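Why Cardiolipin synthase N-terminal domain-containing protein? Reviewers of the renewal asked for a concrete example.
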Amino acid sequence: MLANSSLISSNFSTLLFLRNQKVATRISFPNSDKIKNPPKTQFFNNSISGFGVKGRLYVCHSSLNLQNQQDPSMEKDVDGSTKENELGGGSNNGGNGDQWDWTTSFVLFGLWSGLMYYVFFLAPNQIPLTDMYFLKKLLNLKGDDGFQMNEVLVGLWYIMGLWPLVYSMLLLPTARSSKGSIPVWPFLVLSCFGGAYVLIPYFALWKPPPPPVEETELQRLPLNLLESKLTAGITMAAGLGIIFYAGLSSGDVWKEFYQYFRESRFIHAMSIDFSLLSAFAPFWIYNDMTARKWYDKGSWLLPLSVIPFLGPALYLLLRPSIPTVPALSSPTSTEEK
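Here is what the prediction returned.
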């Protein structure tokens, strides 16, 4: 419809520059009869909204004014979401869900798939009967038969039992997904049996920001237990005892454990699980720290969070309380008012 399509610029940077200016573009052709077979010009929805024809006058209306008129409502939405994030404690990268995009999920699912394939098909499995014997001994399903269990293996087993509690305290409530998304509690329950192999799928599906925490939530289970300094202190003390028990073992005990690691699928997979939980912990500590608005004062704990188990346990012991919002009134009480 236009004889020369270059009259309308497709430079979007120019449109962005003119975004806050009232622009009304009018292009007229005095003698439209001379135009033969005008080329078809594609109009982008975000730059040109309408095209009107009056006699021999072609009028091109700009939608920049409409965008300018919509800016106040857009700003209200942005301000409202900002306030909601502040009430909810925020999340990593300012609580913007777009920061945790599909590429992160794709990478995490790829990592999880590779780990599962390795554990089930590539990990060493030379002593499957010994693995079943170790598992029964660790679960106290086998009586005292005179066999001395490896101290490092026993310490690793018990420290793996504390990791689900640590991650429950880190992920609830500051790493809950947005309303309507995947809940975190099924993954935390299953992590008691599968560890990081169960938690990584939730990491991939996680959608920040978390919903705000109401005051009444901190007075009920499980948050009153997970936010308790007593729980954090017991976890820290138990972890220190287990690590000292295994760490003070002789060199021969460590050599024996390394041999088990090379032969046993059970011990091999559990060792990788411990490494994964230790590797992911600093990120969730940072997420929890920013949600509690404690980054300025508690950032010195981030380097310490790379210490397996003890770093996260120390953070849980020192962190402040989670910011809360007043409890929403019930519909019945609202009607009475």
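The radius of gyration is 30 Å. This is the kind of structural detail the renewal will allow us to pursue systematically.
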